[in-house]
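Hi all, posting the design record for the shared folder.

TITLE: backbone redesign
STEP: 1 of 1
STRUCTURE INPUT:
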């Protein structure tokens, strides 16, 4: 055994993740809103960057500057030379087709009335003594977003040091408020309140709601008919009426949570028979290099601390600008490849969606699968067929008799169409649907049909049956 120190030359390939590369990867996976927030943060931390584009900017000169900088890889950039040569170095995100307004009507929509506010307003005019209105206010503020009272009567009575009958009376008054069915303690009470306020006194309806809601949910109408001693057709009519009632009376009002709107990251439009694609970055902050710091750098000595600091900030700013532009181009290339592959979907609808994997798009665009994943993750596309998450177009599928791939979304659409056209008195079972699809050349098992049906929230044949 020989021990000692030696010097060996070894050639190794490895990927070094520089801070700039990490930032470029991070920017790529940002959606529209996240990119805006990130740009705002960078403007706060980098004094060289500023939001807004000078009016006298020369777009062509700006593009030439960016292209020239991209050709310089590991060399030091002499920023003074660039500043002397070009009056402005800036980046502007613009729409090549049409300019869109930065504001929308949604920004000026008034606040919605919440359920609590609506009920408290009615409480002011209720026939209750003032000392009891505080109990009514407590009950109203104890309701959940669906309008149900989850606090027990005994707890409320103990809190106000009064008897439970008094709390019950106050609760009864609140249950007469709009929307009907409010302040119920369970689904049965909620439905009975609505029936009572509609003036319906049919004992069969009251009995079905009071004792057979589980059977209604499971569509066991024959069992209900035997117990209630009426025809199955009568029970069918009763269940149809019950389904018109509101099981969650509070959901018609604002929950107090902020409504989040989807801003598409990519827009696809068909113009003159051709599908045009552009990345929706027109509302993102417009970045430019501060003229103030450009002038400082122009007259500062290269060896001064100020010059070194500003040079570092300029390098960081230009890398950010380049990364944003690279993000836009990557997303554009990926979406274009998707649109070209899924052309039948954009022309004819969901039934013509094809199976697609990340690898197929990666090979088409000439990038890695992980880059495709980052480019589409959390981003949305606005198209003539509607707004879709871009990941929607990447779907598995099965092969037909011709060996062509059929996406799972296409099969779901076929299953939905078959169910909509079925005889409601003899609904198609999962096996029957499987048999119909196999006749059409689509090899799919009963379990897969059941899985797709559950994903679309469609009931089983036994629960869809009507009498």
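Okay, here is what came back for every position:
SEQUENCE:
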């Amino acid at each position: 055994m020989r021990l000692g120190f030696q010097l060996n030359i070894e050639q190794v390939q490895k990927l070094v993740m520089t801070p700039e590369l990490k930032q470029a990867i991070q920017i790529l996976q940002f959606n529209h809103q996240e990119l805006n927030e990130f740009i705002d943060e960078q403007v706060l931390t980098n004094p060289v960057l500023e939001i807004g584009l000078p009016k006298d900017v020369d777009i062509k000169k700006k593009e030439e500057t960016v292209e020239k900088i991209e050709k310089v890889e590991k060399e030091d950039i002499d920023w003074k030379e660039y500043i002397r040569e070009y009056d402005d170095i800036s980046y502007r995100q613009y729409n090549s087709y049409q300019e869109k307004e930065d504001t929308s009507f949604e920004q000026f929509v008034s606040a919605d009335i919440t359920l609590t506010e609506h009920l408290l307003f009615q409480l002011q005019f209720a026939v209750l003594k003032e000392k009891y209105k505080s109990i009514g206010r407590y009950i109203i503020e104890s309701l959940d977003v669906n309008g149900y009272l989850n606090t027990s009567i005994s707890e409320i009575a103990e809190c106000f040091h009064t008897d439970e009958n008094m709390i019950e009376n106050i609760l009864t008054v609140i249950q007469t408020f709009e929307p009907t069915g409010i302040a119920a303690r369970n689904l049965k009470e909620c439905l009975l309140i609505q029936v009572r306020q509609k003036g319906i006194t049919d004992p069969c309806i009251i009995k079905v709601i009071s004792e057979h809601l589980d059977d209604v949910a499971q569509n066991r109408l024959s069992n209900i008919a035997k117990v209630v001693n009426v025809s199955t057709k009568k029970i069918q009519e009763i269940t149809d009426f019950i389904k018109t009632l509101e099981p969650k009376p509070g959901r018609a009002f604002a929950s107090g949570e902020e409504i989040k709107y989807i801003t598409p990251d990519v827009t696809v439009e068909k113009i003159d028979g051709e599908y045009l694609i552009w990345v929706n970055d027109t509302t993102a902050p417009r970045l430019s290099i501060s003229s103030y710091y450009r002038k400082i750098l122009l007259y500062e000595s290269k060896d001064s601390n100020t010059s070194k600091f500003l040079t570092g900030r300029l390098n960081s700013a230009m890398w950010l600008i380049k990364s944003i532009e690279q993000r836009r181009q990557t997303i554009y290339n990926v979406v274009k490849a998707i649109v070209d592959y899924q052309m039948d979907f954009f022309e004819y609808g969901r039934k013509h969606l094809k199976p697609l994997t990340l690898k197929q798009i990666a090979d088409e665009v000439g990038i890695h699968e992980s880059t495709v994943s980052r480019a589409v993750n959390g981003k949305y596309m606005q198209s003539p067929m509607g707004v879709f998450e871009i990941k929607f177009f990447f779907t598995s599928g099965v092969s037909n008799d011709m060996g062509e791939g059929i996406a799972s979304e296409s099969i779901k659409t076929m299953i939905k169409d078959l169910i909509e056209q079925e005889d409601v008195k003899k609904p198609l079972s999962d096996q029957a649907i499987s048999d119909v699809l196999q006749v059409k050349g689509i090899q799919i098992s009963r379990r897969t049909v059941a899985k797709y049906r559950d994903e679309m929230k469609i009931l089983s044949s036994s629960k869809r049956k009507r009498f």
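COMMENT: Confidence is low (pLDDT under 50) at residues 54-62, 86-101.
Let me know if anyone wants the other runs.
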